[in-house]
Design goal:
- By secondary structure, the protein is mainly alpha-helical.
- The radius of gyration is 33 Å and the shape is elongated.
- It is built from eight helices and no strands.
- The protein folds into two domains: about 120 residues, no CATH class; about 30 residues.
């Protein structure tokens, strides 16, 4: 008597993995990754994770701009002064380059460029820390977007939502058709009863 084949290739988990939907990796794959780096949370928005995208974007951008404007007083992000930290801050994408472009050039006491200001903000170190940490966190978000399993999960959820919407539409159409047929039958029966009543001879009028 031959024993059943229990190799991993024929296991139920393998069958489910083989039937799991996948998402084609191409231009959209690179676009979502780059967009996620430029604007935190944008990549998840493209994949359909709207709530997650909003949470990621609001959290990272709020912490970054708090460190840059409130704590660092627009001096936390600058390539000219501390390029090492800027490499970490660059993970924030567009926000980091915008801050460096607008406020990144240091000024001396007399306004000449190229000299570091002697009046540094009190919490500048904390501002540099927050802007650097958010850059690293956003890089983790970008790596999550570049993970093919993220796209497979998104495709699976999209198919699930499509089936749910199709089932809901079918039930709605069925209820609408049933209601329409019931009304049509009721009107038809009422019309038939009315015709039978008017077509019959009145009582006592027969010769």
């Amino acid at each position: 008597m031959s024993r059943p084949d229990r190799s991993p290739a024929n296991s139920p988990a393998s069958s489910l993995a083989n039937t799991a939907p996948t998402h084609a990796l191409g231009v959209n794959y690179l676009f979502a990754g780059i967009l996620s780096w430029l604007v935190p949370g944008a990549g998840h928005w493209v994949l359909g994770y709207r709530v997650r995208a909003i949470v990621i974007g609001v959290a990272l951008l709020a912490v970054f701009w708090t460190g840059e404007t409130v704590l660092g007083e627009n001096m936390a992000v600058t390539w000219d002064v501390h390029p090492v930290f800027f490499c970490l801050q660059a993970g924030n994408g567009f926000s980091a380059f915008f801050a460096d472009r607008v406020w990144g050039t240091p000024f001396g006491e007399e306004g000449s460029t190229g000299a570091i200001s002697l009046t540094l903000p009190r919490h500048l170190n904390l501002g540099i820390l927050l802007t650097s940490v958010t850059g690293l966190l956003n890089l983790l978000v970008v790596l999550h977007i570049f993970d093919p399993r993220t796209w497979s999960d998104a495709a699976r959820e999209s198919q699930h939502e499509s089936r749910h919407e199709s089932r809901h539409d079918a039930q709605h159409d069925a209820r609408h058709d049933a209601r329409h047929d019931a009304r049509h039958d009721a009107r038809h029966d009422a019309r038939t009863a009315n015709e039978n009543t008017t077509g019959a001879d009145p009582a006592g009028t027969a010769p």
